[in-house]
Design a protein that fits this description.
The two termini are 23 Å apart. It contains seven helices and five strands; from the N terminus they run βαβαααβαβααβ. Strands 3-2-1-4-5 form a five-stranded parallel beta sheet, sandwiched between helices. The relative contact order is 0.24. The protein is 52% helix and 22% strand.
Length: 139
């Protein structure tokens, strides 16, 4: 059974579907914990600062992106925590999963930044190649 479940989330429809699958896997397992991980990359950071300016407003905006996921997890009665970190999404997710000995990673097949994905390659593909645990890529 999976105990430490990492859910890479950006608020996209694919990350919502990944959340559904993480919840299914964790339900009925009282030892399961879902870590909802949101990675702030350089472009997102710049955009957030220009748009919201104040730290509190920026933090609130980021949490709003995860609100639907948080609601799903709460309704399912699964233990969870939200982590917001900075970095390039693929490597940051891999580092978090490996450093924290996660049992499994759930990630959407596509995120919000489709242009970056087209140029640099899929974040989910990078995670699947480098994580030390199973990775569930959800369409």
């Amino acid at each position: 059974m999976y105990r430490k479940i990492l859910l890479a989330a950006d608020g996209s429809a694919h990350s919502l579907r990944a959340a559904d699958q993480a919840i299914i896997v964790s339900k009925g397992n009282k030892e399961a914990m879902i870590v909802v991980l949101y990675v702030v990359d350089t472009d997102t950071l710049k955009d957030d600062v220009m748009r919201y300016r104040e730290k509190e407003a920026i933090a609130e905006h980021r949490l709003k992106k995860l609100a639907a996921i948080e609601e799903k997890v709460q309704e399912a009665g699964v233990d969870y925590e939200i982590k917001i970190i900075h970095g390039e999404p693929g490597p940051a997710i891999v580092d978090y999963a490996n450093d924290n000995k996660c049992d499994v990673v759930f990630i959407g097949s596509r995120g919000l930044n489709t242009f970056q994905e087209f140029i640099l390659g899929s974040v989910s593909h990078k995670v699947a190649k480098r994580a030390n645990c199973p990775v569930m890529i959800v369409k």
